[in-house]
Specification:
seven-stranded mixed sheet; 1 helix; 4% helix; globular; mainly beta; 113 residues; single chain
Length: 113
């Protein structure tokens, strides 16, 4: 699954505010992820060094699996600004096996002054 996001540096993207990143397994042939752990790794586009790793949580609504990943202002401050300036991959780990569930880009704007 490929999904891109637009973010603002220094802003929080928390589930409590309905702003966390949400990924859905609908139509993606995801396995049962009930015993999995989730991590989203971000890096500057074209680079391999990880800027941050954030954990996600799973929920199921109407038989569809959702993975929710919150980002803090600390996370978004680490991202370079620009269109497609950063890349991410969302991974699940099940019984020691790693699966990539989603990849994409972050387009990042500087916070307004």
């Amino acid at each position: 699954m490929k999904r891109d996001f637009e973010l603002v540096q220094g802003y929080d993207y928390q589930a409590a505010d309905n702003r966390a990143l949400v990924f859905t397994g609908a139509g993606q042939n995801w396995p049962d992820l009930s015993a999995a752990t989730f991590s989203l790794k971000a890096r500057a586009s074209g680079f391999t060094k990880t800027l941050f790793t954030e954990t996600g949580t799973r929920s199921v609504v109407g038989g569809v699996q959702y993975i929710t990943v919150p980002l803090s202002a600390i996370n978004t401050n680490l991202l370079p600004s620009g269109a497609n300036a950063a890349e991410y991959d969302l991974q699940a780990t099940i019984s020691g096996r790693r699966l990539t569930l989603a990849t994409g880009f972050f387009s990042v704007r500087e916070a307004p002054t």
